[in-house]
Design a protein that fits this description.
The protein is an alpha+beta fold. Helices cover about 50% and strands about 15% of the residues. A five-stranded antiparallel β-sheet has the order 2-1-11-10-9, with helices on both faces. A two-stranded antiparallel sheet has the order 3-6. Helix 1 (about 1-15) packs antiparallel against helix 2 and helix 6 crosses helix 7.
């Protein structure tokens, strides 16, 4: 359309010039002016016609550019999402690899974790396993607790005698032979004291003194050095096992000679049912009867050193920069209602809770022996029952109970 308009004006120009004859100079000038006007008009028309096209082209280009940017943006988003998915996949793979490595590196831990998860899922179905039953003592295995007595004692073996008259006030399975645990240390003290060894001699705890029988602990570390007197004090008062073992180890002739002296003394005293294999009582092969132990208490109570050390309420031991406080294993020594001349406690699972004492009750010197008591405090409870019973004035031989078949061993 624009081109046709231009051609139309171009054709008019020659027609207009072919007018009636005029001055040639004027005509020439007129033609020049007309040609210029025609050219300008054509340029104007062309400009008007091409402007919208240019604008349209510019808009199209802008739209195309925007579309390209949008496409690029969408592609970038896709790439980002794809990259994120890749990272997530790699992350999941890394987690799997890490879990696999963890399983490989610590199968026990992974197994425990699996067990915990399984327990969490099945917790409602699971039942708590009952605790393992306590290990029975030899007295329980022998049926000694079935024997009855008027005081309903918790100890399966008991013997109470008047020290001066040898009158038996109460007996229960008194000839049953059982492990005696740390009551052994009473004989250890007797042998050390009779040997007249220097009590100020320094003795060092060695690895040989560490308990390998029961794995018991001790505050006397290997390398600690104490006097023989302090070791005897701790053995009798606090039932310190390493102290008792060190006393036997450093005895003239060594441990074998010491154990031989223990058994020799038992024979001299008439303790026919007694046998020792070591000085601490950790071995269940150290055995005796309530009858024999009453004989030992009678003999040991005549030694003022053993009386003093066994009834001491506490003692401090200085080891380098460290001070250790030791206390008596028998809380009755702190009770002002009790007048105790000698005492010793003991416990291992085979023996149960054990206690021997020389006491004064209602003006009478008594020897009390309790073996295989059923609870930690029951041996003290039995002693309290006997004390109240004696204070009420019991008759002799009350509460006698014979040994069940097979009690002696």
């Amino acid at each position: 359309m624009i081109l046709r308009n231009f051609l139309f004006f171009a054709k008019l120009a020659p027609l207009s010039i072919a007018a009636p004859p005029v001055d040639l100079m004027a005509v020439s000038s007129f033609r020049s002016v007309l040609s210029c006007l025609t050219l300008l008009a054509g340029v104007w028309v062309l400009a008007l016609g091409t402007a919208p096209v240019w604008a349209q082209n510019k808009d199209a280009q802008a739209q195309k550019a925007r579309k390209g940017k949008d496409d690029q943006s969408r592609e970038a988003v896709k790439s980002a999402k794809s990259g994120q998915k890749g990272k997530d996949a790699k992350g999941r793979q890394a987690v799997k690899v890490a879990k696999g490595a963890k399983k490989g590196a610590g199968p026990a831990k992974a197994s425990r974790q699996a067990q915990v998860r399984a327990a969490g899922v099945k917790a409602s179905r699971l039942q708590v396993a009952p605790p393992a039953p306590p290990r029975l003592s030899y007295g329980q295995l022998a049926g000694l607790h079935s024997a009855h007595d008027p005081l309903s004692l918790r100890s399966s073996v008991a013997l109470v005698i008047d020290q001066d008259t040898q009158e038996v006030l109460l007996s229960k399975n008194d000839h049953a032979v059982l492990p005696i645990a740390s009551l052994t240390k009473l004989m250890t003290g007797v042998i050390i004291n009779e040997a007249k060894l220097p009590m100020d001699e320094m003795i060092t705890i060695t690895q040989d003194d560490v308990d390998t029988e029961k794995g018991s602990s001790s505050r006397l570390r290997v390398g600690a050095t104490l006097s023989r007197g302090e070791l005897l004090h701790l053995a009798l008062m606090s039932s310190e096992n390493r102290a008792a073992h060190a006393l036997g180890r450093t005895y003239p002739g060594g441990m074998a000679a010491f154990v031989a002296s223990m058994n020799g003394k038992a024979q001299v005293l008439g303790m026919k049912d007694t046998r020792y294999v070591e000085p601490t009582g950790l071995s269940s092969r150290n055995r005796s009867s309530a009858h024999d132990l009453a004989i030992l208490v009678q003999a040991a109570s005549s030694d003022p050193v053993i009386r003093e050390l066994s009834t001491s309420s506490g003692h401090q031991v200085v080891l380098g920069r460290q001070t250790l406080q030791y206390n008596n294993t028998n809380r009755l020594v702190h009770n002002p209602e009790w007048e105790i001349g000698l005492q010793k406690t003991g416990y291992i699972s085979e023996a149960g809770q054990c206690l021997v004492m020389q006491v004064k009750v209602a003006g009478r010197k008594l020897i009390m022996v309790f073996l295989d008591s059923a609870g930690k405090l029951s041996r003290l409870g039995d002693a309290e029952r006997v004390k109240r019973w004696v204070e009420r004035g019991p008759g002799p031989t009350q509460g006698m109970a014979s040994d069940p078949a097979g009690a002696r061993s």
